Amino acid sequence: MGSLYKDEQDDWITVCLKYLLFVFNFLFWMGGGVVMGVGIWTLVDKGEYLSLLASSTFAVSAYILILAGGLVMVTGFLGCCAVIREQRSCLSTYFSCLLLIFLIELVAGVLAYVYYQALSEELKQHLSKTMTENYAQPGKDSITQSVDRLQQDFKCCGSNNSFDWMHSVYIMSKAAESRLVPDSCCKTITPQCGKRDHPSNIYKVEGGCITKLEQFLADHLLIIGAVGIGVACLQLIGAVLTACFIYLLYKEEEEDFSDV
């Protein structure tokens, strides 16, 4: 009688765990879509600013999230199939995939956090040099477009302030046509509006574009890190549930074998 009750209890636990895993995998699949979406959003939303950064860590973090998100969606679907079929081999493969994706997303989260700590110093060292030396220079069209977009989007002028442009290669060249700042510094862009640097005509922002871009990238990096580490922790729960389910299936197989 006790043995029969124990078998029924084990069956009940297995069924509950099975449905719990199925629900988890559905949520896991949806989470993969969110992770991929965050990675794509990071690259698409003002992604042209990446050419202004000295390192590629920011972009790498986003690409890792997109890769992990895609793997999560595929793994979530496979996990649902493995749970329905109750095959230990499929579940073991699914468990291994969970651990692999966990490591990938953890790396993305850590990269985002490490880069977040070094972001301010990188921008101070690199952005000013990029804007003054490469703006409107031959073969630097992408940087020129990025700087113009940066100044218009964030309503700023110069890396620290508008006077930074006085030392730029572009402003000191004939191509500037006596401009004091690029036209993208103007509140309302008109041909050669950069010849007048009065606050009523151009953006005068304390801290310049460095402060604005730093805040923008920092916000994105925090989201990347939070999503990466958050989903990674969720996967640990899935891995524990999967391991328990595999163990129960193994016990059932052993009991069936001993009965024979």
Automatic annotation (TrEMBL):
It is found in: Membrane. Keywords: Membrane, Transmembrane, Transmembrane helix. GO terms for cellular component: plasma membrane. It holds the Pfam family Tetraspanin. Signal peptide: none annotated. It is a multi-pass membrane protein. The chain crosses the membrane at residues 20-42, 62-84, 91-116, 221-250. Belongs to the tetraspanin (TM4SF) family. This is Tetraspanin.
